[in-house]
Amino acid sequence: MGRYTGALCRLCRTEGTKLFLKGKRCLTDKCGLERRSYPPGTRGKRVAYKKSNYKIQLREKQKVKRFYGVGEKQFRNFFYKAAQKKGITGDNLLQILELRLDNILYRMNFAASRAHARQLIRHGHINVNKRKVSIPSYQLRVEDEITFKEKSLQNEHIKAMLEDVNGLVEVPEWLIVNPETHVGKVNSIPTRDDVSIPVEEHLIVELYSK
Q1: Would you call 193 helix, strand, or coil by DSSP?
Q2: Whose CA is closest to 183, among 141, 139, 127, 133?
Q3: Nearest Cα to 141, choosing from 175, 171, 172, 109?
């Protein structure tokens, strides 16, 4: 299945929670979920019916996939990687997703959304430890430093964007950010409490464990 190209607000309405796919708009009364809190489609306003265990598990997986902007194959690979690590598989999975470069760029207020962060990374605007990284799924580690290329900071569009997104989201404690120099650093490994999306990760583990 290819990349989703439909209306982003439909995804939030389908999952019944804000996925913050449209940046600043998601924080205003123009948010699609705020205006229409029911699911999309002709059945959206109908009385809720009982969901099977499989559907509940599937919706949790889809919600997390869409929140982080990850495809099915990549998400499955992340799950297998999490299962091989020591500790709780669900916590390991969320930790891997949080440590993606595109997610960290967004959480540092260096991009309007995770999709925008992926665009900046692929276009070569981002350095990790003073080396260009063009892979959005790049896994960061403690002490890694994230910066913009010097030339990119002179770009009028990027300068305007950084001013616009400054303070857009609350920077978590496991990240250190200097908003004046636009330099960020991974201070520690994120914990389960640092995940901002409401998710029952054990349902995803149950789904893939069948």
Answers
A1: helix
A2: 127
A3: 175
Other CB atoms within 10 A of residue 147 CB = 20
CATH topology of domain 100-189: 3.10.290
Report the predicted TM-score, pTM, of the whole model to 2 decimal places: 0.84
Q: Evaluate the CA torsion angle 13, 15, 17, 18 in order and state its sign.
A: negative
DSSP conformational letter for 205: H
Q: How confident is the model at residue 101 (pLDDT cuts 50, 70, 90)?
A: very high
C-alpha 164: how far from chain center = 19
Three-state SS string over 54-104 comes to HHHHHHHHHHHHHHHCCCHHHHHHHHHHHHHCCCCHHHHHHHHHHCEHHHH
* Interacting residues of 160 by C-beta distance below 8 A, sequence separation 6+: none
- Are 110 and 165 in contact, with CB atoms under 8 Å apart? yes
Convert the pLDDT of each residue in 106-131 to its tens digit.
999 999 999 999 999 999 999 999 99
